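Step 1: inspect the first sequence and its tokens.
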Amino acid sequence: MFGSHPGAGGSLAVHVPGFRAALAVRCYSERAVRTHVELLRHLGSWLQDEDLSLLELTADRVAEFLTVRRRLGGRGLITAFGVAPLLEYLAGLGLLPPQSRSVPAGPASVVLERYRNYLLGERGVAAQGVIRYERLARLFVSSVAVGDEVDWPCVSASDVSCFVVRECSSRRGSAARNLAAALRSFLRFVHVDGWTPLGLAGAVPPVGGWRAQSLPLGLAPDQVRRLLDSCDSRRESGRRDFAILTMLVRLGLRAGEVAAMRLEDIDWRAAEIVVHGKDRRDELLPLPNDVGKALTDYLSAGRPPTTSRAVFLRVLAPRQQLTPTAVTAIVYGACDRVGLPRVGAHRLRHTAASAMLGAGASLSEVGQALRQRELKTTAIYAKVDDARLRLLAQPWPGGAA
């Protein structure tokens, strides 16, 4: 069907056994394995027809191959997502050409790539944070670029102020503050890295806004119970989702912390778990009985056999570690099942904090449990601690006490 000699697979035929084994380890079904192996054979035949080697298989060449595959009537694995497992396998063998830069070409691409490496390597910023900071930095670069170049010594405080005023006119609250923080970070970097003669971070005007102006709304106990009850314990996905929701509600973990958890992080004898938190901090938390039971049920009857050391895995192949976005999607799915408005994983963190306060914990104890560095970050929960607020309330003058 595909190419002049799809069965042979060209020079890639020798990799069929290894690729088949790699797919099996990642829990692909036998039918899926056959489909992916057929893709490998087709790619090998196409390379042979085009007189190309694997070292010439660039992103553009892959796009050409997929176009041919679709034109010949292919219905499976005809997108970049579908071919990704094969390319990942070949890249792991060192058979593909070096990939393009992480930062796309354009004005100041070198500076932006150095900035990205700085955030990852020196600042320890999480992947999602790097994406956000890089996107906002690129937005500023585009505003001061002339054609495809940026004359860094000529970038002025006026350029910075005009950019912030223009961008913040369409942003509110935390979005505006995040832009200002990311811009200060980038401007500090370009100065220290020698691109600008003056430090322009101070030219970023402050963004107004009251700290802790909103209430940290958690879910009511009956809503939490409905979310947990919506997980079908007869299914692998149900046991996994129940364990994840239980950890979010009881321990106040962030989505990224749940996704990053590994099997060796659980100390069953000591009833403790290691949490890989923000800024690359590893911290120890007690493992409550209900959380431990939910984990045990999932690990014994819900988690498939695999070489991955991640605790929480995808239900469908490839059985790999969940992402923070996938953890949030699990919370969304539970909300949809019980008819609640969608809330994110962070809303369950607020729920855990409110439950701790309701059980008599102090603000400092809540801060320790949530692994917050500053008490002022935890102080927002004082707004929802009705019992303690009543002790501070003064009688209304001339009214009943």
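Step 2: inspect the second sequence and its tokens, then contrast the two.
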Amino acid sequence: MSRFSEVKDLVMSLEGDFEKFYEKGNQAAGTRVRKGMQDLKNLSQDIRKEVQDKKNEG
């Protein structure tokens, strides 16, 4: 479940930047949101691979 915690922590860490970008139009926050979403995509892909590998073991 630690991987789930990683996903949750990453999403929660982006909350402030989402608010700054969407509610206040802060462009720098938008850049941080894009980077965070790319990190989330990469983390998700890693988790998908782990799950597939574990599934194929048994």
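Step 3: confirm your contrast with the notes below.
The helical segments are 2-13, 15-24, 27-57. The mean pLDDT is 96.
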